[in-house]
Amino acid sequence: MPVTNDKQTDNFTDWRSLATQWQGDAEQFLNYGNKALALGQPSIAYDIYSEGLSLNDNHLELMYRTGLALARCRSTSSAATVIKQLLKILPETNSLITDAYSLAGRLAKDQWLMAADENAKAKFATRSMQAYQQAYAISGSYYPAINAASMAVVTGDVNYGQTLAESIRQQHSAFTPNTIGDDYWLAATLGEACLLLNQQEKAAQWYQQAIQAINGNFGNQAAIYRQAKMLSGFIPVAPSLLANLAIPNVVIFTGHMIDSPEREKPRFTTAMEAAVKAVIADALIQTNAQFAVCSAACGADILFIEAMLEKGGDVHIILPFKQDDFIATSVEFAGSDWVERFHNVLRKAGQVSYATQEGYLNDDALFEYANSLMAGSAILQANILETEAILLGVVEPKATMNTGGAWQLIEQWQQLKRPTHIIDISAFQADQAANSARSIPASPPTKGNATVSRHVKTMVFADVVGFSALGEAEAPSFFVHFLNRISETIKQQTVQPSFVNTWGDGLFLVYDNIETAAHAALSLRDAVISHDWASIGLPANTNIRIGMHTGPVYAALDPIINQQNFYGSHVNRAARIEPVAIPGSVFISEQTASLLAFSRDSQFHCDYLGEMSLAKKYGSSVLYRLRQREELE
């Protein structure tokens, strides 16, 4: 999950101009929307499908694709509404019927997982079971069958769940774990069927074959583990079975650099390198590490990455600013050998990303920003994989706490009561006390006062959906009523934004605190989608898109508006997220999602959307959808 990615993908932002040539042809909308969906652009696909649907009322495949695109955008309730309407008019002979019922089952299952109220959970579980049951009755496929069986057990109907499980087992009785081959989903399905039948040993055999067939695809393994773990709340599941399905841990690493020539008292000399690396390798085994998030400074960082790669692990390197500046501040003072090793680990890492593509400019706040992104990224990855995030540190216990330094990150992590594994580097100092010579020929890194001042802010951009279609008669109502409601919503917030600006239907807000910004964005969303706009002469479907991003920005007095304004590439990134958001939703950058994950506010949940193209050919970024933790949408 790269923090930033400027890779260009197929751009669909010009689809509206193309649509004028399609003359309402549903196939054109379907084909172009399908292309966007296949390339991981569900929000754009939704816009294309819904526009086609507005011109082709009750077009069955456009309805299904609209619901699917909404589901991919984690708009679960909206997707469920569309699919429910589709199933009312979809003939059972239509080829879409099985997929539509299966999607309805999946959406209801997601709602069951999200719901907090027990009555609501029971309703969604039953709805999910019934939808999967219908899909199985029509298709005879094992996928809806096993889901119907498991959801039946969730609803309390164990007998029916076991009846379905036995039918799946009988249907595939010709297979054994040794003969099923690479069909890991069928192997996992038969494992789940045996689990529902309380055949623990047979279940373990099938699951073992599924994991073997997956061959290191931890995303698929996490899905199997998640389902088995869910069932353990309703039926007996052997702890050893869950342990064999569990994903190894994610490790965030921090540690000291090799001593610079200017350091008076040795802390981490080159003579300690081999011993420290050996202890790091042991720690990776102790922490069951498979995934790593770290920086790549000379010393502990690079030793950690080398040990992780030798172990066969997956490494995500996050650099705080552009590479040349990072080498100058954090690598080359230790000598050309470390520079070569730096480039080598970057080549071999699974992912390399940058907290910002801007220069260092003697601004240590960028190190702190990058550390927080590393921590949040590790937590998000662990959440997705249903595993644990552990901090591994190679530090001197009495080291000074500097901005963006190792101990600052360790203390912040420990304040969240998350697991930590510390390697005390002072234990190696005693062994090397007699060897204080350090073969570091280069000059020490030069650090001065920051040449510019950047501050990490959270930017919120919002835009009214359909504003350009408003007529002259509707414009006064918009400016009087709509903007007044937005203004009142902002004023009701306990902490006001540092900056507010509007233009037409656009809104730009800047917040010092990320949690405050998240609350504000969701409040704005709710204020718009809950209001009866038709009663004041505006279209009933008046809605809002909101985009949010957190990063280091420049502040300066704007002479035109005569107040402090904010500038920089991170402001631009926030502005490019908003146009790709689904109406009635808040899309956020991976930076914002990571920082929220590393915050103490547990009220929010960030649903992973994947890598999506941003507006105006601004490249692509991983995006998330923001919601309150217990809300269903």
Keywords:
single chain, 633 residues, alpha/beta, eight-stranded mixed sheet, six-stranded parallel sheet, 24 helices, disordered N terminus
Write the layout of secondary structure elements.
Elements: H1 15-19, H2 26-38, H3 42-55, H4 60-72, H5 76-89, H6 97-114, H7 118-139, H8 142-155, H9 158-171, H10 184-196, H11 200-214, H12 218-231, H13 239-245, E1 249-255, H14 273-286, E2 289-294, H15 300-310, E3 314-319, H16 323-330, H17 336-348, E4 351-354, H18 365-384, E5 389-395, H19 406-415, E6 420-424, H20 426-431, E7 454-465, H21 475-491, E8 499-503, E9 506-511, H22 514-529, E10 543-558, E11 563-567, H23 569-577, E12 585-589, H24 590-597, E13 604-613, E14 620-628
Kindly describe this structure:
The protein is an alpha/beta fold. Strands 7, 8, 9, 10, 11, 12, 13 and 14 form an 8-stranded mixed sheet that branches. It is globular, with a radius of gyration of 27 Å. The two termini are 23 Å apart. The N terminus is likely disordered.
Q: Structural class of the helix and strand makeup?
A: alpha/beta
Instruction: Please tell me what the overall shape is.
Output: globular
What proportion strand? 15-25%
Compute the separation of the termini in Å. 23 Å
Most strands sheet: 8 strands, mixed
Explain briefly what this protein structure is.
This protein has 24 helices and 14 strands. It is an alpha/beta fold and 633 residues long.
